[in-house]
Structure formats: C-alpha cells, structure tokens
Amino acid sequence: MKNAFLHGTLSETVYCAQPAGFEDTSRPDFVCRLNRSLYGLKQAPRAWNSRFASFLLQLGFVEAKTDTSLFVYRRGSEIAYLLLYVDDIVMTASSMDLRQRIIAALQREFSMKDLGELHHFLGM
After folding, report:
1. 3-state DSSP call for residue 37?
2. Of 49, 57, 73, 96, which sits 20 to 30 A from 66 (CA to CA)?
3. Separation of CA 60 from chain center
4. Which helix (H) or strand (E) holds 55?
C-alpha cells in the first residue's frame, strides 16, 4: 500500500500548526484543521485500519474473531484470506480469478501495487 496513513479518515477534529513553508504571513497565529490523516498523528494508524477494514467489509470480507488483522471472504466454493500488517498485505485465494478481482477492487480504491508472489514478509 502506498502512503497508507494518508488514506485514513479522521473521526475527530484535529488541528495542527501551519506547516513550514506554507505559513500565512497575514495570519501567523492561525492553525490548520485536518480533513484527512497525516503521518505522525497518533490517530493515523487507527484511521487507516478503520478505513481499510470498512472497505473490505463492503467487498464481503469478514474480520476473523481470533485476529483483527485477518479477513476472510467466502462465497460458495470461493474463499480468500487477507492479512493486513500496517501497510503490507498478504492474500491468498482459491482461484486466480478471485485473487485478481480482489486486487482490482483494492487498486480502484487505494494507491497500491501488486508485488506478485510472496517471497519475503516481516523479515521472514
């Protein structure tokens, strides 16, 4: 996932100081109200995870009860497992067609790239 934390939608009002290089000299004491999440905010990981999880639920995935980072999709004989770790995703599916449909749906919603088959994940 590219710039995962920037995809998060804030559920509360957050203000920050004017960014360096973008200060309004006529209003130096003004602050900025954030509409979207930014890297460095303590809310950013939660906002990103919430946005991603809600999108997966729209696709028909169900969050596993034993692990909130594992999502399962079941429709008839089709099954897919998706594991999310911050901005890294590992997914497997019962068919290449199902896998491609899920990847296409994710790519329409989020800026991401498919790195192909898994060779290295979390240092393993």
Report:
1. coil
2. 96
3. 16
4. helix 44-59
Q: In this structure, is the dihedral angle defined by the CA atoms of residues 23, 4, 87 and 53, taken in order, positive or negative? A: positive
DSSP 3-state assignment of 21? coil
Within the chain, how many helices (H) and strands (E) appear? 2, 6
Nearest to 42 by CA among 94, 5, 86: 5
Contacts of 9 (CB under 8 A, 6+ apart): 36, 37, 47, 50, 51
Going residue by residue through the chain, which has 124 residues, state the pLDDT in tens, using 9 for 90 and above: 556 556 667 677 878 788 788 888 898 888 878 777 666 677 777 777 888 899 999 999 999 999 989 999 999 999 999 998 877 888 999 999 999 999 999 999 888 877 778 777 766 6
